[in-house]
Amino acid sequence: MTPLAFVIVVFLISILGGYLGALLGLGGGLIVIPALTLLLHVDIRLAIGASIISVIATSSGAAAAYVREHLANVRVAMFLELGTTVGAMTGAYLAGRVQPRWLYVLFGAMLIYSAAAMLRGVHAVPPDEPVGRVSEWLQLSGSYFDHQRNEKVPYPVRRPLLGLGLMYGAGAVSGLLGVGSGALKVTAMDLGMGLPMKVSTATSNLMIGVTAAASAGLYFARGQVDPFIAAPVALGVLGGALVGSRQLRHFPTTLLRGVFVAVLFVIAAQMIARGLLH
Known about the structure:
About 75% of the residues lie in helices and about 5% in strands. It has about 280 residues and is mainly alpha-helical. A two-stranded antiparallel sheet has the order 1-2. Helix 4 packs parallel to helix 7 (about 160-175) and helix 5 (about 100-120) runs antiparallel to helix 11 (about 255-275). The chain is globular. The two termini are about 25 Å apart.
């Protein structure tokens, strides 16, 4: 494949990754990293470095639209970033000390857990559980306009401290794998804190850029950000994210959840097989 053809293919794949990332709150990295490593045979460390840049681009492209439409809960995002930022720096430090094959396996295992939790609804928050003092003190509960139902939907935010702890783990995975850990963020907010799926997705998109930025410096310092790869990835993901962020409000919640779970299972199987068989 010629260099020009490589750049074009990476750019087109990244558009798809950014589009799905904006719709599902995944950050684009879950599509871009497997595509670069499995299809184009890019070293996973360089793929992770490019993904870190694309995650920031996705967040920049989608978050503004979500905040403007009141889908993203800014208070929740800023509270949970306390955990994800520290976790991201921890993960980025550990990434230089883990063998590449185990990054594939860890990546796949993280996806399988997220998909299974979303599919089964484990640890879901009971609808009658009180919000608690922390949530009331920080005024985390909010509302959004559901275009599918054509009405304003208020929602409580429960178990914020549990969410904070889960976000440390999500941030560590982000720094380790360069994916923004949107899969874990959406799962934690949807199942652990009881937020609606659309709010979880939008808030995740707002958070992933901050999380990725916290660890990006270490990847630059280690020389794991190749401009030849990172540039088309960032541009493609940004374009896809801008389109996806405008269409989220028109998608039914059940459809979003189904696509989210299906994407996670398929990519998890591919990544685990790559790590164990190579």
